[in-house]
Amino acid sequence: MLLPRSSPESQGLSSHAVLAWLDALTADDLELHSFQLLRSGHVVAEGWWAPYSADGVHRLHSLSKSFTSTAIGLLVSEGQLSVEDRLVSLFPEVLPPAVDDHLAAMRVHDLLTMRTGHAEDVTGALVEAEDGDWVRTFLAQPVQHPPGTTFVYNSAATFMLSALVQCLSGETLLEYLRPRLLEPLGITAADWVSNPQGINVGAWGLQLTTEAVARFGQLYLQRGRWEGEQLLPEAWINEATRAQVPPGLEAASDWAQGYGFQFWRCRHGAYRADGAFGQFCVVMPQQEAVLAITASVQKTQRVLDHVWTYLLPAMGGRVPLPKDPVGEEALWKRCTDLQLSLPEMTEAWEEAESQETYTFMHNEERLSWAQLRTSPTTCQLTLADDRGEHPIDFGLTEWQAGRTFLWGGEERILTRAERRPDGTLALVILLIEGGFRWMGVVDEPTGTLTIQPPPTMDSEGSILLARRNSEEAGQATP
């Protein structure tokens, strides 16, 4: 059953405030994929930037961490675990030959608060472990500082929480959460990436719908209570969302307000579950509001800045506002018509039979060559790397659903190919669950194929360049 819907005005929020927030996001060129705004348990505004849709799951990146810490809270409430338990007592079979004092002192509490004592994030060592044993590798890493004293954002710590859930329950993290959290909240569509040991990664890789994220936030807003049942102890909510790690010195940063049990504190008395590229579940207790967002943005602070500038002040009171049919209609239309910003394309497909092969310059994506085949009814781009060939079929005048292993694991994609007004051929690949896009441009006069991969947290990503082979079209693929 869907969450109840209501007009913003009936919950004390002006539709024009939400419109102003959407305007600010657009002006800042921030690519949101969806949002759902709840007040007093009612959805007062929501939207999906097409081709994203309400029933599609989205990769949540580190927002996943808050679900992992919730599982630990459930284990504690069941009496299977204490946050004071030492890690060495929980994984005795895989300890290193010599256990130093720092490793011996590491508690579950230190994993939850990212104060394991490591000098840096050790996740890379786990991912690169030749035997695939992430638990043993984590325990073998040097612990330079006394646990509980130094905050270092460390996704490996969250993985160990997931491993702990599986160790104690005999179920993966996702299996454990289904009957205790997800099903009571009405969440059915969920997936979680696992490591080579079959352990859900915990720190990232959870995929949920936007409404599922909003329901999770509403559970925390309601102090762990859902439809008359206390799913999670209120005492755990208090501990998980308070500043276990003290705030930093940057008053204007929402990453310097303190850290709880895999939750970030925010300005204005709020807190949030937070994932890379703008995956947010913002809980605003004073306003009785929850905001769930999926996105692909680098300037994540700007997304929150606009929340505090446009939405927060408009939720000062809880008394219903006078009805505003014009504002409500404008907001409904705006949310209904949301579209991803893509290069302008024509609506016709009038390509002739053609086959061209391109060779890539050296690139970090390890792509070696590409072959483009077009006809009056088809468009296919085959990309080759050191793992093999990856043919991708493109929709011609609308999005086409498909799957690919181009990036290692299987990815669900939407594709579209169209001739742009400037004469170039645009090839768009949306990783519809991953939340990223690849943009290819074929320029026949210059004989080039350029591909813009997804951005990283630090940069827009380097453009990949391939040049058309000098042989005549139709020759054998290299």
Task: Explain what the structure shows.
The protein is an alpha+beta fold and 478 residues long. Among the domains are: 9-56 and 209-336, 3-Layer(aba) Sandwich (Beta-lactamase), CATH 3.40.710; 354-468, Lipocalin, CATH 2.40.128.20. Helices cover 26% and strands 23% of the residues. The protein is built from 13 helices and 21 strands. It has helices spanning 15-27, 64-77, 87-90, 101-105, 108-112, 123-127, 134-140, 155-169, 173-182, 210-221, 234-241, 300-311, 325-336; strands at residues 32-39, 42-48, 58-59, 191-192, 206-208, 225-226, 229-230, 264-265, 271-275, 279-284, 289-295, 354-360, 369-374, 379-385, 388-393, 400-404, 411-419, 425-431, 436-443, 448-452, 464-468. Strands 15-14-13-12-21-20-19-18-17-16 form a 10-stranded antiparallel β-sheet, with no helix packed on it. It has a 6-stranded antiparallel β-sheet with strand order 2-1-11-10-9-8, sandwiched between helices. It is globular and about 70 Å long. The termini are far apart. Residues 472-478 have low confidence and may be disordered.
